[in-house]
Each structure stands twice: as structure tokens, then as C-alpha cells.
Specification:
This protein is an alpha+beta fold and 147 residues long. 53% of the residues lie in helices and 17% in strands. Strands 2-1-3-4 form a four-stranded mixed beta sheet, with helices on both faces. A hairpin with a 5-residue loop joins strand 3 and strand 4.
């Protein structure tokens, strides 16, 4: 009987952990570490400005410092079109939910800087015109003003 109860408890616990979304986890992490959340909506295999944004900003060492220095938690809500790039059903569902909440116009790329509760602090429609250094500095400045 104890074994059956333990097994059921483990299964319920595992489902509960798995059911937590990346966004909920990001909000918790941001709250604990006093970080901001950078949410990016992209079409990674069809949207040229999205591809440029990732190459010229998101994938750079300068941007990665924002993550390693506990400035931002980064989430990419991707909407690829090519069959070979399709996401899991769970991830698709989460991305649609994020789009329903934050990107009802369906803009790509669309980047939001959020506080740990999910409140929008800044948004960028399309490819940001500033350099990665200016983009990172703007995020750092916003974080400093949050204190």
C-alpha cells in the first residue's frame, strides 16, 4: 500500500513540474533574482528580420552577458513554418498562449521587456535599430530604474 501511494505521489508531482510553463518558471526566476524577462516572438525559419535579430543581438556575447549577469531571463516564443523545425505540441501551445496575451497583432519580430510579474516595461516592434551594445544598455538602464 505504501508503495502504491508513493508511486501515485511521484506521478502527480512529476506531472505538476512538467505542467509549469517556461513563462511561469521565468517569472519565478526573475522574481527570485530581481531580473527582468525578455520575451521575443519570432519566426525562426521564415522571418528575415527575426533571423537578423537573433544573429545580430540574441546570439551575441554582449546579449548573453545579460543572462549570465542576472539582468534578464530570455524566452523565445518561436513560430517556425518548416516541417523539420516544428516544436513540440506543448511548446506550440505555450507560444500561442503567450501570443494571445502579449502579441495579439501577430507582429514578427516583436520583443517585450517585462517585469517579474509579466507587466510590459518596453516593447520593440520589428528589428531594433540600435546596436547590440545600445540594446543591452537600454535594458540595463530600465533594470536600474526598477530598483
Amino acid at each position: 500500500m505504501k508503495t502504491l501511494f508513493s508511486t501515485i505521489l511521484i506521478i502527480v508531482f512529476a506531472i505538476g513540474i512538467h505542467a509549469q510553463s517556461r513563462f511561469e518558471n521565468a517569472k519565478k526566476q526573475a522574481s527570485q533574482n530581481k531580473e527582468l524577462i525578455l520575451l521575443n516572438f519570432s519566426g525562426s525559419d521564415w522571418c528575415i528580420p527575426c533571423i537578423k535579430l537573433h544573429k545580430n543581438i540574441i546570439e551575441t556575447d554582449e546579449f548573453k552577458k545579460l543572462e549570465t549577469e542576472n539582468v534578464v531571463v530570455y524566452i523565445n516564443a518561436d513560430f517556425p513554418r518548416n516541417k523539420k523545425n516544428q516544436l513540440s505540441q506543448e511548446l506550440k501551445k505555450e507560444n500561442v498562449s503567450l501570443a494571445d496575451q502579449y502579441n495579439r497583432k501577430g507582429l514578427f519580430p516583436y520583443t517585450l521587456l517585462l517585469d517579474s510579474e509579466g507587466k510590459i516595461l518596453k516593447s520593440w516592434e520589428g528589428l531594433p535599430s540600435e546596436s547590440v551594445l545600445a540594446f543591452s544598455k537600454e535594458i540595463r538602464d530600465i533594470k536600474e530604474n526598477q530598483k
